[in-house]
């Protein structure tokens, strides 16, 4: 594959980027090892290449370049034309012009996780901002680092019914243009003199280990104003929180009192090798949240399964039969999709909970004993290994429960069974390539989480907190772009109809692959309503041929109607350098796997009748 994808044909800029093929063999892609995230400033005048003073738009782009930003996803508009032009003429920043601002925000989120670099989203005024909000909400919840650059109405025109007026007359200021639950930092740049201060605040925010989502809105008239102040040159280096010696010693005391389990979340992804050393040194059983699949190898004898939605019964077996005294929680909030707040997951002496967010430990299980530790997970585990007592006895676990495999039910029609599809994806994509897999919310999530197996992290992405339809069908574009390699989205037909960005992938020839589970309905909703005995709601969708739609947009489209068509279709898609949509006719009557959730619900007093003597009803539909 070439070093870069071609930029938009509307730009003649020469691109300069230090890239590598480190994404192969599980390494992070591009120049992520060179990214620094703590600001260092030196005041020097930043001028244009011809010696002229910079405009505000050009100054913003220079600051972004200094902070290591190399991608900007968004949709253009007249109110931000000057800023769009400045971004497009950057020699370092790729501008990916998307079809919808929400899709741009989801793509930017997944581009961040593929590259470990901050990403820009750009939008015009009014609906440009509001269209992006769901994707930005997901970015905040997922822990991405995103800067939204938007346009807003210039001060002299506010309140005069400007086109797409963006002011307190038309859009609430609180929350959109101020810090809060949506943005860690937000501001309207009303004067060129504010830019140095804003640059420093952005740099300080991006320096933190936690995610960071900021919004800078620039009035149209200000974008072309000339900078009168010199700009700080911003270089970034990480600020990594470490455990105090007292907290570390206390954690060792608690964990050496008896056998303990390890419960991994997505926040532990940078510590995979260290966590494996810790588990093998102590004999601790390891379980993980859906987002953390692969951080600990799923074929390892100490791995007991995935918890939560789409998870495994083996986890409950482990907690009931092996009864660890405590659980070491690393980088997960233990929210409903991870734990269902099941009492079965609470060990006798509670939790030692490590997280970079001080508001996380003890909240999901408020009645359980919890020792909180504020620290980066890799830093904590490294210190734990260095200070682990040499005379501490490892756990004696003769045989731990292992995740249950796929049960292929007899075919009742010619349609493709989802379990058969997942096994084909495992063999032909996961085991045969380094492609990243993204699973959409809905039954796609539960099938993929339950049945697919990963031996390393950074290869599986799902959204659990927001879980928006449309996240993966658009996010796959950002993931494939930033890693400069294959990214595969497993999605439902409802999500694919919502907002897919296939056209964007065609424009830039991004090698994204969409595997569409086409069953003609919102099937998680349909199956859930049936199991709850609720009638009258209509989840059905008209028949749609996604292969034809893909071809109409210039992508490769493949239609799969029988299980015998699966292998050639998947092989063709993975061999292609172009975007590919595989439209698969799925049997809608195959119930999505969720026995792990069933057992948790039963423990909480929820009555679940058996559909037969052999198998429980499968409940994926939310009941909280």
Summarize it.
Residues 441-584 form the Thiamine pyrophosphate enzyme TPP-binding domain. The protein has 624 residues and is of the alpha/beta class.
Protein model, in words:
Residues 7-19 have a biased composition (Polar residues). Residues 1-23, 595-624 are annotated as: Disordered. One of its GO terms (cellular component) is acetolactate synthase complex. InterPro entries: DHS-like_NAD/FAD-binding_dom, THDP-binding, Thiamin_PyroP_enz_cen_dom, Thiamin_PyroP_enz_TPP-bd_dom, TPP_enz, TPP_enzyme_TPP-bd. Residues 55-166 form the Thiamine pyrophosphate enzyme N-terminal TPP-binding domain. With 624 residues, the protein is an alpha/beta fold. The protein folds into three domains: 32-232, Thiamin diphosphate (ThDP)-binding fold, Pyr/PP domains (Rossmann fold); 245-387, TPP-binding domain (Rossmann fold); 418-593, Rossmann fold (3-Layer(aba) Sandwich), CATH 3.40.50.970. The protein contains 21 helices and 20 strands. The strands form four sheets. A six-stranded parallel β-sheet has the order 3-2-4-5-7-6, with helices on both faces. Strands 11-10-9-12-13-14 form a six-stranded parallel β-sheet. Strands 16-15-17-18-20-19 form a six-stranded parallel β-sheet, with helices on both faces. Helix 9 (272-282) links the parallel strand 9 and strand 10 (286-288). Helix 1 (56-66) crosses helix 2 (81-88), helix 8 (245-255) packs across helix 12 (377-387) and helix 10 (313-321) packs across helix 21. The protein is globular and about 75 Å long. The model is unreliable at 1-46 and 610-619 (pLDDT under 50).
